Amino acid sequence: METNNRINVERVEHKTSEKMKKTNFILTAILLICLPFLLVKNPVWAQKKESSLQLSFLKKADQSKNILLTVKARNEAGKFAPAPNASLSIFIKSNEEWLLIKTLISDLGGKASMKLADDLPMDNEKYFSIMAKIENDSRYEDAEEELRVKESRLTLLLDPTDTNRILTATVTQTGNDGEPMPVQEAEVKFYVERLFGKMPVGEEFVVATDAAGKATYALPKNIPSSDTLGNLTIVAVIENNETFGTVESNASAKWGVPLQWEKDPFPRALWEPRAPPAMILFFAIVFGGIWLTYFFVIFQLIKVHSETKIK
Amino acid sequence: MEITEQQYNRNEVEVLRETSIRPLRQWGTKVKIWLAFLILVCGWGLFCFIYQLQHGLGATAMRNYVSWGLYIATFVFFIGISHSGTLVSGILRITKQPWRMPITRSAELMTFVSLLFGGIMPIIDLGRPDRLHHIVLFGRLQSPLIWDVICIGTYFVGSSMFLFLPMIPDMALCRDRLKGTASKFRLWIYEKLSLGWTGTPMQHKRLELTMTIMTIIIIPIAVSVHTVVAYIFAMTLRPGWDSTVFGPYFVAGALYSGSATVILAMAAFRKFYHLEKYITLKHFDLTGRIVLALTLIYAYMNLNEYWIPAYKMAVGEGRLLNDLFSGTYAKVFWILQFGTVLLPIIAMSFPAGRKPLPLIISCIIIVIGAWVKRYIIVVPTLLHPYMPIQEVPWDWAHYFPNWVEWSVTMGCFAGIFLVITLFAKLFPMMAIWEVEEGMKIEETRRLGMEIFKKNESEEAKVATTDGNK
Fold first, then answer.
1. Which CATH number fits the domain that encloses residue A204?
2. Which fold has domain B27-443?
3. Does A261 reside within a domain?
4. Which of chain A's residues have a Cβ under 8 Å away from the Cβ of B195?
């Protein structure tokens, strides 16, 4: 009897181990089949999206040279939309050869930027060339964009003693002899710096430079300042010029109408420290009354309890 | 052996007491399974809420435009349900309706529980619930949100007291009756909650006084709560919300859904506690009439709320109304109007529609409809601001609750059922002493009528004799 039982137990154990082996085998097989799919982060069968690149040059007021990139890719709806996480290679031309200077990744808005060195290799005509490429990106098709820019200089002069408030912007470029040379017919735009961006100084805020490379504009006297001292920051810009890209310059003067602080501009505002007295009174009476009643009820309950004790 | 009248009444009272207390004696397997299920759903909801806390509100489907979604819609719904206790218990108590007595406890409990979870919903909706105490520290009385906090807090305290007061004599009954069967801890709870009640005339007097005060005071508080909930919408400049009728509209909607919930609770406790003797067909008929009246008021308010702006079709409102009447939300909107308002009105207008089963079906439809209606009030308006939504990602301009929101909300619903179930297993679901008093009044009235009839017939006899003479 005992032997039979042992045999039965062994049979059951054998069957269980057989089942387990089978299960292990199936699971291992599934895992092995799935493994390559899991390991390949960006599978080859994923279709790459058609992409496009925009490259522009910006010389800021602090004289730093920058390039700005915008990457777009065709989405499911067939429209070009910002392409995030695109790998970008930036090259500069030196002695007729393209040299890789940096790699960038586009942000969620498909934008990327970088600051260039101060001494860039230039060709005989005093131009420097930059190229941006999307290469071997797993999600986007290859694309490239080239930019050839000549360096220029924009200065903005304000004479604080000038009652006419004339803004004078001067645009120069480096001549073949290395000396500054005025740029004629360059369109200079004049703006006032504001908290969230730049606002044109007036209706005709675009002025072309003359033979001396100068553009002048008489600043209106009614522009409000953003502080009580009357400070205004004026910005002069050459925007998206074919030869020079975008070049900025700025200067400040106390030419604005000082801001007058209103003592109590919104007397009923939500952010006022105190509610109107009538409202406070109303709430105090109504809710004070209700809570007093609650306390009275609680007092009565205490009485109910104490009456038992007395008893 | 003949049973005397006094004995008969005593037996009746005994049956009532035993029927009400019997469910507290044992916890059946079905109850335990039901509790385990509810705890599981609550646990999952809590887990999802922790996930939401870790990942921020970005874990939900809410974005910049729709910052009030399912959570706030459910909050408004719960606050609406909380009107049930006020209506049935408060209004019927103040109008001295004797038939209210067996159903007041469940109504008051619904108020307490729905307020408890209604108060939690806006906290769940906060991006930084750890800053909740800032409401007290930096809250401004000018803000309708603060009015909401004050009103709901006051109403919660008041409705807790309103639930507790009529429980005191019943707690004393449980204390005395469950000795030997209930655990020491439960007996301790009954002992403490009974406040040493012995039923002296003075104690009765004090209890009656406090209950009368609370009945008078709780009705305006309840009305103020839902009015102020409406104000947090109506005091913003948004299409669909910018309405002077929003306060009464919300109160009407709350009473309509709250009274339907009372019927559902009443039907559930009648079935599971075998209270058929006390909660009769008459109760269904009368509460059905109340729901019918409130649904008619609600339908009238609904007509005003949509007809006037639809006639004018101002630009901002027009975009929203077109979306409701014939756009994305059209199906839901018309089903709500016809299915959950008009259909119950027709059904409840006939006596057959106020029988338990059809009335329960009508009430289920009303309650579900009320919940969806809150969603329709909150979400479409947020998706139709006066300045049209442009140049934003797709999911900012569209909203449907995701799994996190559904899980957390379902967790709250399970929490409501959990508290109700635990309450019903710990405390009697009928105000026993009130029903007893009702029986006494009924008996006195019957005896009075008998004496009156007897006197009348005797007078008639005397008059006949005199006439003959």
1. 2.60.40
2. Formate dehydrogenase/DMSO reductase fold (1.20.1630)
3. no
4. 301, 304-305, 308
Q: Does residue A41 sit within a domain?
A: no
| Same domain as A249, residue A158 | yes
Rounded CA separation A242/A240 (Å): 6
- In this prediction, residues A155-183 reach a mean pLDDT of 87
- Name all contacts of A284-292 with Cβ < 8 Å and 24+ positions apart: A287/B150, A287/B154, A290/B154, A290/B158, A290/B217, A290/B221, A291/B154
- Domain spans in chain B, listed from the N-terminal domain onward: 27-443
* Alpha helices per DSSP H over B275-355: 281-312, 315-326, 330-334, 343-349
Residue A55 shares a structural domain with residue A143: yes
Q: Which of A14-23, A113-122, B35-44, B170-179 is predicted with the least confidence, judged by mean pLDDT?
A: A14-23
Task: Please determine, for residue A90, whether its predicted confidence score (pLDDT) is greater than 90.
Answer: yes
Give residue-wise pLDDT tens across range A151-164. Answer: 899 999 988 777 88
Asked if A75 is an interface residue toward chain B (Cβ–Cβ < 8 A), one would say no
Asked if B140 and A270 come within 8 Å (Cβ–Cβ), the reply is yes
Last residue within a domain, chosen from A95, A122, A150: A150
Residue-range definition of the domain harbouring residue A69: 51-150
Whether chain A has a CB inside 8 Å of the CB on B209: the answer is: yes
Per-residue pLDDT at A41 exceeds 60: no
Q: Give the list of residues 6+ apart from residue B315 with CB closer than 8 angstroms, or none.
A: none
> How far is it, in rounded angstroms, from Cα B88 to Cα B92?
5
Report, as an integer, the average pLDDT of A295-302.
94
Please check whether residue A105 lies inside any domain of the structure: yes
pLDDT at position B6, please?
A: 53
Tokens describing residue A256:
């604005």
The full length of chain B comes to: 469
Q: What does the alpha-carbon distance between residue A229 and residue B462 come to, in Å, rounded to a whole number?
A: 109
Dump pLDDT digits (tens) for A186-235. Answer: 999 999 999 888 999 988 899 999 999 999 999 998 999 988 899 999 99
- Higher-scoring residue by pLDDT: B241, A269: B241
Q: Which residue of B has its CA nearest to A288?
A: B154
Residue A287 touches partner B, C-beta closer than 8 Å: yes
B142–A300: do the CB atoms touch at under 8 Å?
Answer: no
Final residue in a domain of this structure, among A97, A122, A150: A150
Helix (H, G, I), strand (E, B), or coil: what is residue B82? coil
Task: Say if CB B32 and CB B25 are below 8 A apart.
Answer: no
**B412 and B46 Cβ atoms separated by less than 8 Å:** no
Q: Based on the domain organization, do A92 and A156 belong to the same domain?
A: no
Min Cα distance B196 → chain A (Å) is: 6
> CB of B157 within 8 Å of any CB in chain A?
yes
Is B141 touching A (CB cutoff 8 A)? yes
User: Residue A45: its pLDDT value, please?
Assistant: 52
Answer whether A79 touches B (CB < 8 Å): no
- CB–CB contact A279 B154 (8 Å): no
Residue A177 placed within a domain? yes
User: One-letter amino acid identity for B162?
Assistant: F
Residue A74, domain CATH: 2.60.40.730
Cβ–Cβ gap A307/B202 under 8 Å? yes
Q: Which residues of chain B have pLDDT under 70?
A: 1-10, 469
For position A42, what pLDDT does the model report? Answer: 47
* B221 close contact with A: CB closer than 8 A: yes
How many domains are there within chain A? Answer: 2
Residues A113 and A200 in one domain: no
ipTM above 0.90, yes or no: no
